[in-house]
């Protein structure tokens, strides 16, 4: 258990553990995220994985909101289809405010994981630990070709919004590009899992400074310059592990598009 757990975090860990332990349809409670891979602090979420008996799974999924409400102080909750995880219930509890993720899975789902979770409770701890020992644990890092196939399309999309004068759309696309491409590639350069832009400020000050060049103010020239910085940064990071197939005409054509009068 992280030594930095606050009293609020500890209280909710105990609430969820007691709730799982008292429901015979639920066989184990696991914790992931910062709880296991480090960096836990007073602002951290709690990421729970709840293992459900096969025959009760549909019933438990249908009552997820009631489960979250039973923990106490539930302010809002919604399911995670937008991140491709319909089994997930994303919750806000408080005050004090705390973000809690509840993912309901079958034991058979433990065969493929993105991280090794901690076991907080299990009716058969030996069986659950054996499942985790045998699991394939792999962070879903993107390949060089995944980045290359998407980078120029996304950059052009944002540049087109800029050309139309839709500055906020263009700025939003830059944020998306940092999250999906530049941040993961910066993590790749440092040998870390590709976790978006998480903690780049703390882990690599020079990279964070470069990344700041892709954050414009609400001004067409500033946004254009940020796209040019993003292009240069992508090319530099791409050279670490080049894709098998480079996109034709890039970056020259996109630079011309961004600088039509040059």
From TrEMBL:
InterPro entries xref list: NT_sf (IPR043519), Polymerase_NTP_transf_dom (IPR002934)
Domain Polymerase nucleotidyl transferase, residue spans: 14-63
Organism superkingdom: Bacteria
SUPFAM superfamilies per the UniProt record, alphabetical: Nucleotidyltransferase
Transmembrane segments: none
Pfam families the record matches: NTP_transf_2
Stated name of the protein: Nucleotidyltransferase domain-containing protein
């Amino acid at each position: 258990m992280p030594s930095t757990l606050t009293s609020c975090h500890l209280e909710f860990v105990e609430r969820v553990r007691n709730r799982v332990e008292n429901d015979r349809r639920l066989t184990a409670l696991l914790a992931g995220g910062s709880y296991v891979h480090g960096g836990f602090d007073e602002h951290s979420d709690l990421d729970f994985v709840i293992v459900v008996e096969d025959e009760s799974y549909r019933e438990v999924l249908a009552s997820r909101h009631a489960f979250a409400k039973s923990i106490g102080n539930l302010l809002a909750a919604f399911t995670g289809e937008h991140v491709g995880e319909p089994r997930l219930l994303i919750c806000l509890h408080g005050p004090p405010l705390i973000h809690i993720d509840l993912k309901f899975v079958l034991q058979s789902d433990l065969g493929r994981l993105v991280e090794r979770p901690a076991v907080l409770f299990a009716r058969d701890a030996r069986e659950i630990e054996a499942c985790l020992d045998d699991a394939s644990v792999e962070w879903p890092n993107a390949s060089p070709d995944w980045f290359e196939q998407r980078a120029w399309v996304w950059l052009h999309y944002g540049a087109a919004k800029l050309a139309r004068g839709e500055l906020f759309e263009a700025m939003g696309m830059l944020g998306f590009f940092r999250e999906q491409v530049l941040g993961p590639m910066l993590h790749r350069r440092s040998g870390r899992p590709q976790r978006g832009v998480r903690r780049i400020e703390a882990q690599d000050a020079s990279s964070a400074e470069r990344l700041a060049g892709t954050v414009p103010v609400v001004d067409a020239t500033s946004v254009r310059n940020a796209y040019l910085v993003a292009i240069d940064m992508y090319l530099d990071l791409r050279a670490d592990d080049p894709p098998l197939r480079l996109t034709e005409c890039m970056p020259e054509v996109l630079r011309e598009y961004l600088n039509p009068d040059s």
